[in-house]
Amino acid sequence: MVDKIQILVAAHKKASMPQKECMYTPIQVGSALASEKFAGFLYDNNGVNISAKNPYFNELTALYWARHNSDADVIGLVHYRRFFSISKKKSLSAILSEPDLRELLQTTAVIVPKKRRYWIESSQSHYRHAHHGESLDVLRSVIATRQPDYLDSYDRNMAHSWAHMFNMFIMKRNKFDAYMDWLFDILFAVEVQIQDDVVQWDHYEQRVYGFLSERLLDVWLDKNHINYQEVPVIFMERQNWLLKGGRFLARKIGIGRIV
């Protein structure tokens, strides 16, 4: 039976938070570097943590904190502007509720977002058009060396035209711990090899380990034959589709990355 559920809401700035659902817990990421601590939040620099790495690991600092400090039986991560929602209504009052989640957990151990589909390119080509491709080369090399049993799954998933993105998921504790230990073993090894290059990139691209990890969730699920349930994600802020389209076209015709 599932007892305690903790869904961390990662935020680096003040934002509206769920009020009626007690399973949601706001956590201020990068707290070690923050000039202001947000009242009513957890801080990712308490206990065992990598809070100071937040400019490079992004929301993963919240997940690392949870792996080593949370006592919950089910752990998840959403963002201050992205939430799971069965109804797909753009309102904090319509996000995934605890009763609905408990019902889902009766038949699955893992909740993930709906697939993000690229249609005309692979997950790998999409990454290379959007980010520094050498980080992907190092990632594959590290997997081949440290986790060789996962290499076939990695290649297979990078060839897909879809992926479960945003580093958002909800997992029962045993799955969460196993995934975190596997994920950070790989990312820390990649960090050793590319950290001197990363500090010279712009601030957006310095979030490389967060970008890489988005490609690794499906690898882990696939290799371990873990069934999952997809749930829609709602984006709370207005999205600039014209800017997004411009970025996409710029990447495709080789102008370069647009931040």
Automatic annotation (TrEMBL):
Q: What are the DUF4422 domain coordinates in residue numbering?
A: 6-224
Question: Would you say which domain of life the source belongs to?
Answer: Bacteria
Pfam families, sorted: DUF4422 (PF14393)
InterPro entries associated with the record: DUF4422
Catalytic class of the enzyme: transferase
For this entry, the protein name equals: Glycosyltransferase
Record the organism. Leuconostoc inhae
EC number(s) on file:
2.4.1.-
Keyword vocabulary terms for this entry: Glycosyltransferase, Transferase
Please list the GO terms describing molecular function: glycosyltransferase activity
